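Supplementary Methods. Inverse-folding protocol.

Structures were first reduced to a discrete structure-token string of length 279. This string, shown here, constituted the complete conditioning input.
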């Protein structure tokens, strides 16, 4: 199980769009995936349109037991192979600016328990020979660096930093990198930045070109070569609760190709983490 968080300190730059695009690509490629909606706005949950559940991620953060996790997960309406740990407005109560260490690990514990690696609390066997339920877990973060985003970073193997190509992007990306670095030192030595994905790029826009060049100068190869163009298909597909991969327009195909390449990068980074014997 590989856990990937989509992160930015700024609102509206495309975290949820990237989480959904990656989830759609994973589903297309037969990678069993869970989307964890940590944002109290619950936009990812709305777009993935799961069946009603009797618990949400807010309950999971109250009580990170396997039984509660199970009640908060439902299959997405996008079809087989993609589930949602559903978001809710109540998650806001877990967004303290300065949380304690125990609170930060709750999401990680819940995910590990769900993955079958910590079965003792629910009376399961402890052989450790449990089949992997999800190969990929994608955590969609809210636009702040409080407890929720830090909980995601405490549980994640990789963070995708999402930005738009505007004058504030450099400082925003730098702060997001610092947050990843801090969390790696403080709570999670597995965590690494996967890279910076620039979203809503308009072709032949000199300001956008300038900002992308600036990002590349500062962050080098961590800035993905592929950028996401600004395409109305993104909003249309989200409005119809469909994956961008199911939207058959030239713009949607352009966006889908970027997500396929992002998925490749995510999966390759997972195989690097695995010990050679089990790879
Ligand atoms: N490449 C794109 N082309 C066109 N529209 C886009 C693109 N990326 C995102 N959008 C639109 O921009 C809006 C904000 O995107 P999104 O919700 O993904 O951002 P976010 O970072 O998750 O926001 P928040 O901080 O509120 O969680 C949405 O309406 C989305 O459909
Ligand atoms: Mg969002």
């Amino acid at each position: 199980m590989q856990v990937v968080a989509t992160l930015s300190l700024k609102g509206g730059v495309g975290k949820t769009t990237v989480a959904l695009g990656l989830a759609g690509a994973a589903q297309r490629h037969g990678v069993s995936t869970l989307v964890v909606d940590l944002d109290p706005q619950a936009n990812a949950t709305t777009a993935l349109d799961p069946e009603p559940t009797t618990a949400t991620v807010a309950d999971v953060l109250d009580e990170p037991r396997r039984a509660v996790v199970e009640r908060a997960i439902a299959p997405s309406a996008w079809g087989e192979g993609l589930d949602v740990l559903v978001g809710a407005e109540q998650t806001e109560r877990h967004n303290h600016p300065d949380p304690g260490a125990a609170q930060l690990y709750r999401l990680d514990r819940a995910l590990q328990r769900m993955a079958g690696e910590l079965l003792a609390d629910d009376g399961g066997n402890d052989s450790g020979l449990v089949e992997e339920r999800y190969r990929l877990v994608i955590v969609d973060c809210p636009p702040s660096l409080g407890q929720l985003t830090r909980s995601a970073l405490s549980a994640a193997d990789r963070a995708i930093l999402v930005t738009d190509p505007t004058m504030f992007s450099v400082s925003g990306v730098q702060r997001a990198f610092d947050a990843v670095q801090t969390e790696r030192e403080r709570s999670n030595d597995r965590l690494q930045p996967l890279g910076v994905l620039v979203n809503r790029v308009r072709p032949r826009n000199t300001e956008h070109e300038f900002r992308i060049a600036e990002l590349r100068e500062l962050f080098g190869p961590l800035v993905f070569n592929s950028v996401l163009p600004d395409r109305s298909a993104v909003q249309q597909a989200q409005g119809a609760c469909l994956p961008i991969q199911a939207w058959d327009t030239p713009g949607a195909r352009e966006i889908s190709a970027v997500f396929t390449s992002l998925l490749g990068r995510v999966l390759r980074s997972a195989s690097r983490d695995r010990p050679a014997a089990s790879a």
